[in-house]
Design a protein that fits this description.
single chain, alpha/beta, 5-stranded parallel beta sheet, 5 strands, about 15% strand
Length: about 150
């Protein structure tokens, strides 16, 4: 029997214009969750990175220069609807949260973040991402029910 492939280490992109926040999230996620973490410091840089790399989950601040988090989320979802994005904000208003969910964010967290809540939210987003990937793979391998329905012949 062939040995099974080792599990792929999930890759997370953290988008925050404050370097110390990126460093903190990176440290927590890589040590506590055993994730590979990359950082972008504005929405435009994050879009460029997401174009080149498939991330399992993206965590993005809302308030950033060049391209704010909500604009980044909308453009990212236009390009890749399947990626799960967790939005964060230090000024976590209800309006911002509603806008994030309307733009298909997985979740919205307010700063300062509780480490356990962040890790749980990332784990849940990764689970959803994996299920979505599996469904997509199955959908491409299964025959179309309409074409192969004997009653349709």
């Amino acid at each position: 029997m062939a040995p099974s492939e080792p599990a792929k280490q999930p890759t997370i992109l953290v988008v925050d214009d404050e370097k110390e926040n990126c460093d903190l999230f990176s440290e927590v996620l890589s040590s506590e969750g055993n994730y590979r973490v990359e950082c972008a410091y504005n929405g435009q840089q994050a879009l460029d990175m997401a174009q080149a790399t498939r991330y399992d989950v993206i965590i993005s601040d809302i308030t950033m220069p060049k391209l704010d988090g909500l604009s980044f989320l909308k453009e990212l979802k236009r390009r890749n609807a399947d990626v799960e994005v967790i939005m964060i904000s230090g000024a976590g208003s209800i309006d911002s949260a509603v806008d994030a969910f309307k733009s298909q964010a997985f979740d919205f967290l307010s700063k300062p973040l509780e480490i356990d809540r962040l890790l749980t939210t990332v784990k849940n987003a990764l689970s959803k991402s994996e299920i979505t990937r599996m469904v997509t793979e199955l959908a491409t391998t299964l025959p179309s029910p309409v074409k192969n329905n004997p009653r349709e012949r």
